[in-house]
Amino acid sequence: IAEFLSRKDTEKEYVLTGVIGDIATGEKYYGFSLKDETGVVSCPFPENFSEYSANLHTGDQVIIKGKYSYYESKQQDQCANGTIQSHTPASIENIQTVTVAQLIEKADPFSMYRMVGEVSGTFNATYCSFDLKDETGSIYVYSVNNASEYSSKLKVGDKVTLRGAYKYFADKSQHEVVD
Question: In whole angstroms, what is the distance from residue 79 CA to residue 98 CA?
């Protein structure tokens, strides 16, 4: 990734390999960030994203082929409109169990973590969103991937175990669990 970013070659296609994080699946914006041992690059609008989007999760390995571009309004280097070549899911066995405080301290958007806590705050059944509270603090859980399965079963006070990734939502100045 560092070499790709330093070359800033808008003509030649490059193949990048890394783990993904900060996954977006909206209608207006979709894609992910890709990280390897040398750096991080944004990968918006992969041409074949719809083929993979349902199975992409934080920490998965992805190989993507694309050209360098620079997004002026965000002042961001990108591998925009690339093509996903392969996807390898992360191993569930290697997911570390952390407390809320440890997740916030790590602030790692490229790894999945397991957390155990209590459903607290306002429970939004439509998105299955809630605050997860443990002995070290509380963090907002932004819509679980299997919301349709749990939105009618969960309630404030229930104890849950979940896997998720860290995200800092700057617009609300809050730490969140996503994916």
Answer: 32
- Return the structure tokens found at 2: 């560092």
Q: In this structure, which amino acid lies at residue 101?
A: A
State pTM to two decimals: 0.85
- Per DSSP, what are the bridge partners of residue 76? 71
**What is the SS3 string spanning 3-30?**
HHHHHCCCCCCEEEEEEEEEEEECCCCE
Backbone φ and ψ of 109, nearest 5°: -80, 5
Task: Tally Cβ neighbours within 10 Å of residue 23.
Answer: 19
Are the CB atoms for 56 and 88 separated by under 8 Å?
no
pLDDT in tens, 77-110: 999 889 999 999 999 888 999 999 999 999 999 9
Q: Which residues pair with 164 in a beta bridge?
A: 113
Closest CA to 92 of 154, 164, 157: 164
